[in-house]
Amino acid sequence: MAPLDINLKYINQTDSLGKKDGYWCEVSDDIVSLCFYAGGVKNGLAQVYGKLGQDKYYLLASGYYCNNRQAYQWLFFHNNGMVSTSQTKISKNSTFLKEAQNAGFYNPNATWQCYIKNYDTNGKITSEGWCIFQDDVEADAQEVGLWKYYTPHGIKTVNKSLEY
Predict the structure, then answer these.
(1) CA–CA dist 1, 123 (Å, integer)
(2) Three-state SS for 28?
């Protein structure tokens, strides 16, 4: 296997206006983020690694940005490598506007929607359904529509929109 050959002089560059451009690697306390930027805006593949121990990291999340917004599909992982959450069909909210208003979003027409599946550490699905969010699905998501919860006793379906 050939070693990974990355020319570090091409990472963390800025354009003529001083905005992030190209491939960026950013490190915080326990997180390492790798993402493509164009004109200071996240656009393209992103990977986020979480610290697992002394100099050990695991893939925490992987997905795409389009104009600084999560787009297409995102996968989040348990530290054992199994998928913990998948977010698909990320798009402008066109289905759950009434729920967004009733949930108290400051601008319901600016909300987004995505379909989420959650998994346990063994890869078994635990729940799935639609969420709406304003800016960040991890920070302010609200479950809406029909949700399925998988239990040892079968599937329980709940209409989350009735809560609003």
Answers:
(1) 30
(2) coil
Q: Among 51, 116, 48, which residue's Cα sits nearest to residue 87?
A: 116
Residues 6+ apart with CB under 8 A from 147: 127, 128, 129, 130, 157, 158, 159, 160
- CB neighbour burial string for 27-47, b if at least 16 within 10 angstroms, e if fewer: eeeeeebebbbeeeebbeebe
What does the pLDDT profile of the chain (164 residues) look like in tens digits? 444 455 667 789 999 999 999 999 999 989 999 999 999 999 999 999 999 888 889 999 999 999 999 999 999 999 999 999 999 999 999 999 999 999 889 888 899 999 999 999 999 999 999 999 998 888 889 999 999 999 888 889 888 877 76
Q: What is the radius of gyration, based on Cα positions, of the chain?
A: 18
Is pTM beyond 0.85 here?
yes
Residue pair 85/117 in contact by the 8 Å Cβ criterion: yes
Distance between CA atoms of 13 and 7, rounded to whole angstroms?
12
- By C-alpha distance, which of 134, 150, 129, 51 is closest to 86? 129
